[in-house]
Amino acid sequence: MTPRVTLAVAARVITQLRRDPRTVALLIALPTVFVTLMWWMFHDNPAVFDQIGGPLLAIFPSIVMFVVTAVTTLRERSGGTLSRLFTMPMAKLDFLLGYALAFALVAVVQAVVLVSITLYLLGLDIQGAAWQLGVVAVLDGVLGAALGLLSSAFAATEFQAVQMMPAIMIPQILLCGLFVPRSGLPSVLHAVSDVLPLSYAVDAVLGVAKGNGFTTTTGADALVVFAFIVAALALGAATLRRRTA
């Protein structure tokens, strides 16, 4: 890995995003729109929104980032751009880390907008600090991007990349604790949820909502999410094909 090359890839992706305002709007605005819709649905029962609002801050950014990064990376490979890039002295890890860094910057903006509107306009009640919730939201967005980059390595077309989303994300949504607390899941499903990254993303958000700082298990959950990000990028670099078969 070469930091200079990684930063060059990140700069290239940021430039592409600046030329595609619709994608930027999708990445930044869509999670907020989804959370606002849920707030509206439970407007007459704010206690329910306070209960599910935290997990939604982990789930929606991950889903949106997953879809966009998976399709964007697949387009790079199917269009031949990736093959041309690899004619230069660039490792596969440089490519993936550059993409992850670029989308991490987008995740920061996404988290600022999402957390600010959710806390100060929609009135989500949390005991922890807003900046801690923002840090976890950024990690969750980057997690979705890393999983999207990983899934793109196994897809041959953009349609296949989109199909990866329900296969990878929906089981995590069902078992992450949004509908049923993980402690109340059957033992087999609880064991499965223990190896799914979104479970720890939701646990970290819930920990912040309860006022637990990063020196508690909330910090450990956040570190596990970070570890999943690193593992997804490393596995993606090991399995990334330079061209579509």
TrEMBL record:
The chain crosses the membrane at residues 24-42, 54-74, 95-123, 129-150, 162-180, 222-240. Belongs to the ABC-2 integral membrane protein family. It is a multi-pass membrane protein. It holds the Pfam family ABC2_membrane. PROSITE patterns: ABC_TM2. This is Transport permease protein. Keywords: Antibiotic resistance, Cell membrane, Membrane, Transmembrane, Transmembrane helix, Transport. InterPro entries: ABC-2_transporter_component, ABC2_TM, ABC2_TM_bact-type, ABC_2_transport. It is found in: Cell membrane. Residues 14-243 form the ABC transmembrane type-2 domain.
